[in-house]
Design goal:
- With 205 residues, this protein is mainly β.
- It has a domain at 47-54 and 74-176 and 194-201.
- Helices cover 7% and strands 45% of the residues.
- It is built from 1 helix and 8 strands.
- The chain has an 8-stranded antiparallel beta barrel.
- The longest helix is centred in the N-terminal third of the chain and has 14 residues, at 3-16.
- The relative contact order is 0.22.
Length: 205
Amino acid sequence: MTRHSSFANALFVLALAPPVAASAQHGGRIDVPEVPAILTVEEGHAPYLQTRAYGTQNYICLPNATATGVAWKLFGPQATVNPPSAPIQVATHFLSPNPDEQGTPRATWQHSSDGSTVWGRAIQSSDDPNYIAAGAIPWLLVEVVGSEDGSIGGAQLARTTFIHRLNTEGGVAPATGCSNVAQLGATALVPYTTDYFFYRARGQK
């Protein structure tokens, strides 16, 4: 085989290889920023995947026990989830029913390649101004409360135990557009970005 053909074959193999996210399992370094103490992940779990999400936080104007009688209520996110600083989608983030909780709607992350999916419940939230930027949604510690392997048997996300939502930008409900009953049912799709850090039990692959 000539040197030229060997090089061409190597390029062909690389072209077929699936994109790899920045993750500990592939030798990437994951630097989780300092977080408020209430967001600390419990011992025995380690980050294995770092991503950046781009999308919207979606709100609907509903009745509420306020002076105006209405208020914006979050009804779910919609975002693409990429490796840090790379235009390659590795997951989709949205709201969907969790089959492990009889269909309770939960924040969902679904892997783009193998379809593995996890559902999360926020167990701690922080809007500490020493960490969170003005005008940004809170940082969260999310506990995984449901998971499924993908339809082809993949499990890229299925072993996740906790997720951090950190370094948030935007996403806060609007200050206008939901101030009286005439505006009931109005929706607002507010752009946001954030880092999601995925954790699993130490030693788990």
